[in-house]
Predict the 3D structure of the following.
Amino acid sequence: MRIRNISAAIAVALLAAAACSSPEPESEGASTTAPARAADAPTVEELRSAVYTGFGAVRQPITLTDGTWEDAPKRITIAFARDFRVTGDLDGVPPDEAIVILTENRGGSGTVPYLAVVSRRDGKLVNVATAAL
């Protein structure tokens, strides 16, 4: 029941953030993105290398490397979904938070999508919440 409540809250947050901004367009080739400031929402590049928790098949925190994490012996892969990022102020405290979609593949034919909220706190990224969709 708690997971459903979290999922519903994050879905509402996603809709609210979508109303505040649009997905950041990504250019191919060399990055022209300025370095992130402590007052900015997390960038796609930062989010693709962030630490996340809250997955069904993985109990410990995982760190993405170039958008993916893998436990080869257990055939579990977690991946950043298509450089999707929506930003908006979800908690009333600057800076804006970022909402991303991650996918979990447990080695079978299906994947489980997750919605994750990431905030910048004291200059560091913090995965505030993650919930299965």
User: Anything to note?
Assistant: Confidence is low (pLDDT under 50) at residues 1-5, 14-33.
